[in-house]
Amino acid sequence: MAIELQITQEYLGQQAHLFYLPPLWREILDFDMRWGGEDLRVKDILTGKRPGGKTVSKGGFAAVSNVGQEKSWLGSHLAMSNLYTYGRLAWNPWDEPVAMLHDWTRLTFGLDEDVRDVITEMSMESWPAYENYTGNLGVQTLTGITGNHYGPNPASQDGNGWGQWTRADRNGIGMDRTVATGTGNAGQYPPEVAAMYEDVETTPENLILWFHHLPWTHKLSTGKTIIQHFYDAHYAGAETAQTFPLLWQTLKGKIDDERYEAQLYRLEYQAGHSVVWRDFICRFYNKMSGIQDEQDRVNNHVWRIEAESMTLSGYSRANANPSEAASGSVVTAGGGGGSASAEIPFDSGVYDIAVGYFDVSNGKASWTISIGDEVIGEWQGDVESHISKASSNGLDGHSAARVTFRGVTVEKGQTVKITGSPNGGEAAPLDYVSFQPEGILD
């Protein structure tokens, strides 16, 4: 008997998002199947153990790796830890994620303890963070399942032959896989495990929506409803992702410039795309359920200036598809470029200024942002030149992106101006500009 794992992050951020897989694999390998009523873990079964003390020939491990021609093999220097640790677990399924990660870090980046500690902290937080800002409580991936499996598109989960079947509607969410009233999937496990999954009261909450269809108002052990858990988890996950580039920046000079800059680009991109995920999923299920966020965050971006509300020159309105991919309407520039400007309505002070935009793959537009007469930043729509992820030519959750300029001093009443220069099929699309005070992630 063998197990197949997926090293490539097909549904888990495609190496554009940091995701250290061994803690997830560890959970699978440590799972007690209760085969024959005995304590028999998946890792035991793979190494030939059977009920009643019997043994058979050892099984094995297989994996989809997606190693390619990119310098880092997997499209990200940190993603290589997943390939290394897969090999370690195939030899010894009792190996621990942190110990393996420490060994890989020493072999890859050297003996500096700061490097080891930062990579360990980010990696061990990466699975909870990604799960928080994508799909929660066992609802599983909410990527565009009928498309490129990358960005958010929960509507794609249902109503088609490739659906993952969340059965989400105005009243509730989750797939009934029980024997009594559902597909019967829960009954395929050995009896003790099957009984656990058959009953909503004994199903672990991190899998509850995989096995049960429940009302949005169903209370979890925390006292939160399912919908409030969705809101809170998505905001928490995006907050965690913001810490990754800041942690990585503490390693400047301790890692060679080429790998340092390549990984910093990815972590900055992930920090922005985690907010895209957060906003998209919260908007989608807020609209579907009609239940408001208790903290009044969803669709309430008080620090944003929407692009369509700015004074536009050369820009015109367009629509994102799905609409949840944008904060409001999108604006796109004509062939001669465009600008969007507005008076800053916020109090004078120091802000992190974030711009929501779209980086489609059929061009490399460029933007500049200025406050008053001072240019504070510029960037290009060239993620396809830096990150080997699935592409999109549409204004959607795959192409939506966000760039942040930190620690900018502004005066109330100054003019913020963003200038876009189209290239190819990329019309320098803009969504919003956000002025974030310290401690706020709008």
Automatic annotation (TrEMBL):
Residues 75-297 form the Glycosyl hydrolase family 67 C-terminal domain. Pfam families: Glyco_hydro_67C, Glyco_hydro_67M. GO terms for cellular component: extracellular region. GO terms for biological process: xylan catabolic process. GO terms for molecular function: alpha-glucuronidase activity. Residues 2-73 form the Glycosyl hydrolase family 67 catalytic domain. This is Uncharacterized protein.
